[in-house]
Amino acid sequence: MLLSVDELTPEQVETLHASLKTLKAELHAELERETDTADIVDLDQPMGRLSRMDAMQQQKMAQAQRARIRRRLSLIAQALVAVADDEYGECRGCGEPIGFRRLSVRPEAPLCVGCTEAAERRRR
Length: 124
What we know:
Layout: H1 10-34, H2 49-84, H3 100-105, H4 113-123
Helix pairs in contact: 1-2
């Protein structure tokens, strides 16, 4: 069986599969750590106005971080399903292989570089 230049070898898929599982565990641990900073700011708690504003800003930043982690965990779950279905490494946009170099950096990436750039241009 001949592979195209960007198609993943079985060894590369196994390496990336292990990376996905490790990343999933790390993100779940980070989500647990972020729980404390995303708690609701008690407006009745005695503190200065600037301290309250700072606490509210920290809360918003923690909530945004938790949302980013959840989005990434969702992509990881989809990638793990793709591994199980023997479809991992195929771009969901164009169907072409994504490539090992890109997946080494972002193993949950659902799109190739070209489709990612096109999607970002459409969002602007």
